[in-house]
# Entry
Amino acid sequence: MDKKVLTIQDISCVGQCSLTVALPIISACGIETAIIPSAVLSNHTAFSTFTFCDLTDEIPKIRQGFKEQNISFSALYTGYLGSAKQIAFVKEIICDCLLENAPVIVDPAMADGGKLYKGFDEQYVKEMKKLCEKADIILPNITEACFMTDTEYKTEFDRKYIETLIEKLSKICDGKIILTGVAFKEDKNGIAVYDNGEIRYYEHDRLGGGCHGTGDVYASAFVGAYLGGKEIFEAAKIAADFTVACIRNTIDHPEHWYGVRFEPCIKQLIDMIK
Ligand code: PXL
# Structure
């Protein structure tokens, strides 16, 4: 049977994040991608204004609809969720709508650059931690990892800091951990992959000061490569190389501050996962 992933995150109508990134990227990897939109926004919250239609109450109804049709999924991937209450509903979906051994992949998309996104608070962080407890793979950035583990956020750090962060995360999630934004040198960025007690690092170029929406591009490419059959470190590496290519394609376009121009790079991703 073909793999079918369910992804739950918002629709930001403009802004190249969440579902408008996850759908094209995972589909391009050859994986059928079903969705539950967590909220509909005119544009993401890094714009100075945005509309926000919370779809929390739709989630249990959609779950019921899936149950009535005997629809279940071979993987779940969650990103930006609209409310703390929604996280509890997602946990019910994990219980009811997944096939046996379906991986639960959680990107705790809630913060970056040392700050929570607009609209999120400590309660949301608490609930997100509970969702991470149920995950097989989590993909936090350094800021999210710090919020979840009550660790001081630093922009300069060493391996000891990363190892401590991962050790604390492993007490929340007993699965695999992919920590992004692990930069030990000024012109480099990287990831740390924790799997079965071992940490492996992958270093890649750092271009410019960071682009918006790269976390979603990264997580989506990881999900596509991983469900496409790559092992975890290889999938994490492919996702990093793809994200760097997307940033390279964007940095000379300052008008494109709100996301990355990932579309022309999709062919590269397909070639990498072949
Ligand atoms: O890319 C993360 C993200 C997703 N969805 C919404 C956001 C953000 C980051 O700001 O605002 C609505």
